[in-house]
Amino acid sequence: MSGSSKRKRVGVMTSGGDCPGLNAAIRAIVNHASLSYDWEVLGIPHATEGLLNRQSIPLGVHAMNLRGIDLLLTMGGTILGSVNSGDPLPVADQIIEGYHDLGLDALIAICGDGSLAILHQIAKRGGWNFLAIPKTIDNDVALTDRSIGFDTAVNTVTDALNRIISTAASHNRIMVVEVMGRTTGHLALHAGIAGGADVILLPEIPYSITGICRHIDELRERWNRKFALVVVAEGAQEVNSPGFVATSPSHPSIGQYVAEQISHCSQVPLEVRVSVLGHVQRGGMPLALDRILAAALGNMAVDLIAQSKFDRMLAWQAGKAIAIPIPEVLALSPRPLEPTSFLIRTAHGLGTYVGDNPPLPDIDLSLCGESLVCEL
Description:
- By secondary structure, this protein is of the alpha/beta class.
- It is 36% helix and 16% strand.
- Helix 1 packs parallel to helix 9, helix 3 crosses helix 4 and helix 5 crosses helix 6.
- Belongs to the phosphofructokinase type A (PFKA) family. Mixed-substrate PFK group III subfamily.
């Protein structure tokens, strides 16, 4: 138990788009703060809206138990609710007052880089004791190897690809699958490799329809493959194009746009179908890695409060939790894929088209250490 005579009151909120593992992080914070330090934990509903309206939910170790079963560990979404639209900065003063009116000694926000930038600005202005835990299926928060929600989303997309490819093979179709990711391709690349995609289109590496069709033709002529699986990140960009703009009802999404172009690019008739996975990628029960990540980062956030160390984001690097100053994280977010990364090289090696970049140079295995473990 803490040596301080004053019982601390800690707030926790979730902000931005939901993802699997948020409740597991809330659980870790509540359990460690309550059991190890005997602190009070208040959940702030709907992020800054809760502070604005002076709303809070008392959270206890056994509050969500059902006959001894801890629902927070496995429940998707967030019991606190979240917001990922609107601009709270015009009412920042009222939000700041909400923190103080609720008597909070510290606030932990589980959020992505967009929410982090806004909350950090408000926290500095209001003199809050503020910490953050990264979550996003996009995995684009800088200086952390993984964010909560990413691993489960990769598995969700991979499962969809496993199902879709059987239909592609049965009907000799080109199946185009659009996945989330905003301006980065981490989700598309990981799931595309795991799901055996023939083409992976990423925001970081411009593609050409000519290159895609050449690859599809090669599959047919060299390997007698009459079907193909194309994974498209929602932010993918065409060579010499400023970016995709949905200007026609015939292609309201990047997936539809790519499918329409593919259908007209070969002398052989191609039957093309599109699946936009959408918000199914955000939902569901968190898998083991996201639960472990949530537990580790939640526990360390509570320990940092005990040590009066604030203005930091908890991150996962090289298999352990560390604390990084938030300004350093924001300066490098969102974190794009490196076009020469080991995983992109892996996709090339598997025969996957990932864009019109020139072939990658030979890798220097001496840079991977004695165990030949290279950065993913």
